[in-house]
Amino acid sequence: MESPTPANADNVQRQLAIFDVVKQAPGKSLSEIKAMLSKAFAERGLSRQPGPWLDAVASDAAFGKTYIVDLPAAVAADSIETVPDQHLEAALQERRILRSESITEAQKYEGLPPAGDQDQSGGKAARPAWTSDTARRQQLALFAGALALALAAVALGTVRRRA
Predict the structure, then answer these.
(1) How far apart are CA 103 and CA 125, in angstroms?
(2) Which long-range contacts (CB under 8 A, 24 or more apart) does 113-120 make?
(3) How far apart are CA 112 and CA 126, in angstroms?
């Protein structure tokens, strides 16, 4: 399983359209790229996108960068068609490796069945909360805030002693 949330089918199609346009974008003006995006979305049966969002996607494409609709959609689209941006391709590959390693470690230490196996109730096997990237980031942010507060308190105490 690549990500904890399944990719939205429309977002995957939107991401594939962006991949196609990024490949054709070099040398094109921003208005040409926006028109290419609108056409690509329409050809895939997708709804018209808001102007500011289209501007952001077209701006990235003009610089050879691939706008990411959402991570599950990008991963799913990359399995269908190669990402045109080499840096993004490397990042998605790293994510796949990290994801695979964290799932393997969770299974080893928590005794979880292999990903995709069914539990007794017929549902998908659950992952422990500590494997969540979001939870890990929140814990690191909390720790960094506490560390910054402690350093500020030490610095303030040092200044007061000298005065």
Answers:
(1) 11
(2) 115/1, 116/1
(3) 8
For residue 8, what pLDDT band results from cuts at 50, 70 and 90? confident
Could you tell me if residue 90 is inside a domain? Answer: yes
User: 3-class DSSP state for residue 118?
Assistant: strand
Q: Which helix or strand (DSSP H or E) is residue 5 part of?
A: none
Are 38 and 89 found together in one domain? yes
Helix (H) or strand (E) holding 79: helix 71-80
Judged on CB neighbours under 10 Å (0-12, 13-18, 19+), 163 is exposed
Whether pTM exceeds 0.70 = no
Domain range holding 142? 132-163
Q: Mean pLDDT over all residues of the chain?
A: 76
The domain tally of the chain equals 2
> For tokens 């422990």, what's the residue?
128
Can you name the residues that pair with 118 across neighbouring β-strands? 124
pLDDT beyond 90 at 133 = no
Residue 56 lies in a domain: yes
* Eight-class DSSP state of 124: B
pLDDT of 55 > 90? The answer is yes
